[in-house]
Amino acid sequence: MKMSEKFILNSSAKKIFIREWETKGQPKKNILIIHGLGEHSGRYKEFAEFYIEKGIGVYALDLQGHGKSMGKRGHIKSFEEYLDSVENSLIFIRKKFLDTPIILFGHSLGGLIALNFLIERESKEIDKSIISSPWIETETKVPEYLLIIQKILKNIFPSLRLNNRLNSNHLSKNKEIVKKYVEDELVHNKISLNLYSEVMSAIDNVKQKASRIKINIFLYHGKSDKIISSNGTSKVNKLLKKCELKLYDNVYHEPHNDLEKEEVYINILEFIKKI
Asked: What is the domain partition of the chain in residue ranges?
């Protein structure tokens, strides 16, 4: 399997890193992956290998402030910077394959970004979308007093970063996946006060405007996710007009990396193949 690496510029003139896993011939379709908070595109290698063998090209960007992309780790000035990076990535793929359908895949924070992109940009480049464990409701609620402190401090120290308090053991039941995550030098555990504020606004935007999304979506989540609640995903499902919802029993935050990943891969492939 051939993998190439590229840098493109986003609207802030920051270099955004993109991985491309290529099919042997002309791809039937292409997937663009948006990863979650703190991780990076390289963690989707095994995911990409499965679809490459099926003749589907796979691209994955490192979000600003993540992986090999530029930017302060875990910080952005505006959520629009994420949306611009997605748009420029789509343009990059479209220039290579003028008529090949593109499927937008987003996991966790990436799922929230994908939903906002579908709402705000209404891109004609996207054929359908796959949303994995989107950041809509966290499993552990943040105390109200901390939210008040955060709102005050983010106006004074917007780029101040805190530990995101993500428990790596809650990512997957596969201990090898957890071990690799902990040892991965490109993974970080930071979130700035402003990024958190932008995420909260993006969540509200989905709750208010998700019904605007016109394309078909495969929305899935693990019922045993201890990081992001599957309840939020179920609520979003009710707002979407064209959506297939799949909730997996005994699956953690990263269904594509859990012990049941083969079932997840196949379900995604079946959705992709549908006209």
From this structure: 2-273
In terms of Cβ atoms closer than 10 Å to its own Cβ (0-12, 13-18, 19+), residue 206 is: buried
Identify which has the larger pLDDT, 122 or 60: 60
Angle between helices 109-120 and 80-96 (to 10 degrees): 80
**Half-sphere CA count of 155, side-chain side, radius 13 A:** 4
The pLDDT tens digits of the residues spanning 84-119 come to 999 999 999 999 999 999 999 999 999 999 999 999
- The DSSP output letter for 121 is T
CB neighbours of 165 closer than 8 A, spacing ≥ 6?
Answer: none
The answer to whether residues 35 and 107 touch, using CB atoms and an 8 Å cutoff, is yes
Helical ranges in 36-167 per DSSP H: 45-52, 80-96, 109-120, 144-156
For residue 121, the tally of other CB atoms under 10 A from its CB is 15
Spatial separation of the C-alpha atoms in residues 168 and 56, rounded to whole Å: 30
Average pLDDT (177-191) is 97
Report whether 233 contacts 136 (CB < 8 A). yes
The share of the chain scoring above pLDDT 70, in percent, equals 98
Distance between CA atoms of residues 34 and 28, nearest Å: 20
- pLDDT at 145 exceeding the cut of 90: no
The dotted CATH code for 2-273 is 3.40.50.1820
- Which tokens hold the place of 71? 């930017």
pLDDT at 185: 97
Per the listing, tokens 């201890």 go with 226
